[in-house]
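Consortium newsletter contribution from the modelling node. Members have asked for a concrete example of what our holo predictions look like. Here is one, prepared for the K8D complex that several groups have been discussing at recent meetings.
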Amino acid sequence: SSQLRSPADFVETFQPFSFFLTKVKDIKTQYNSIGALSLKDILSESMGKLKASCHFNFMFDMDWLVKQYPDSARQLPMLLVHGDQGRAELNMKADAQNFPHISLCRAPLDIPYGTHHTKMMFLLYTTGLRIVIHTANLIPNDWHQKTQGIWVSPIFPPLTNSSEKGESPTGFKTDLLQYLAAYRAAKLAPWERHIQAHNMTAANVHIIGSVPGRHTLSNKHSWGHLKLKKILSERGPEPTLVKNWPLVGQFSSIGSLGPDKDAWLTSEWARSLSSCKGSSMMQGIGASLPKLDLIFPSKDNIRLSLEGYNGGGCVPYSIKTASKQPWLTPFFSQWKSEGRGRSKAVPHIKTYTRHSPDGTQAAWFIVTSANLSKAAWGALEKKGSQLMIRSYELGVLVLPQSFGYKTSFPVSSRVEDIVEAEKATFPLPYDLPTTTYIRGDRPWFIDVPCVDLPDTFGLNWCPP
Ligand SMILES: CNc1ccc(C(=O)O)c(C(=O)O)c1
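And here is the predicted structure:
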């Protein structure tokens, strides 16, 4: 029975997609026993005997993080890659003083308003290297009662002879090394060498990363939405298959997107996401775009969540930004995850997909740190000759052909369907079809008081 299984067994049984959600306190056991992991699970000895680890993230609670490791691993070398500058960096350094085994690497953020948003783990075991790409900050609240996404790689074995490349058909290793190289950080060199030294032929996802910069020429399509456009135009769906398949974006924060939908959202971002095989040209002017559905928590999704209004603390959409883009609201759908038992677990996860009208198939799926913002996905400048990105982001793209499917793969948010299905079925974090906002509801704004209706705990929301 499930309570006797180790975390490694959980991971083993939820293949080949290896896409998990975080365990959520106070939901029914069945929704935490299949396809869900805690940080302790991920770091447990059953997953591998650790020698060293590295965490890329935005927020760190070091005391708590160390306690998620098994006793035997709490003194092992740990590198934390962060984006904190000034006073925040001093705080990181002060915290790290208490932990001689922890060292810090600051990611350069030379473009204003950029953040080090990427959430990734390198876990070096006695037997090989595992990579985890996820959406949760390294603070207890992010792993308590929210919906977060976690992609878990297999253990990549050491390369036996140095002549082997150890690259996968998806270019995973090359793209990950290109991402790391962008930090130009000496402290990452040991981990770049570890990645070089392991056989990653089993990696079955593509890397979609963003690094700060004004990317031009051969670098222009290495990052953000243009990287996605490039992969989809080379390996994406046939245009005829997905003609009326909608796009879904799902995220926990939104940037300033301009005066109307055509300023960036449809003309640039959605155009890249709707790219198909061999049609990067057709996505030029005039090609019609698919329906765009944006899942973003409504005020009531937050009010009635397990955390009540406080759950909105990690959904930082400001009324100041929202008031400049009322044109966005008609695209919104509610957060609904009955199949995964997580309708009341505030979504901090970010995912993007293109699915069939009946919601049973997908042409591709992305889990990433990237919210709906130009800072994360990039904005074209200088007549489209450069892509300006402000932040570090990282995600993985699932394509049908990497999992033995020709054109699309079955999807479901119903855990019972997923485990019993004849054919490998991708575990969606939310329900399809999506659900529009009900009359009288509105998008969640972190900086607007809510005193009309009490939350799960009978409280109001008076923003800090
Ligand atoms: C300005 N800083 C952040 C804004 C949004 C998010 C999010 O993921 O929604 C995060 C984060 O949690 O990393 C940080």
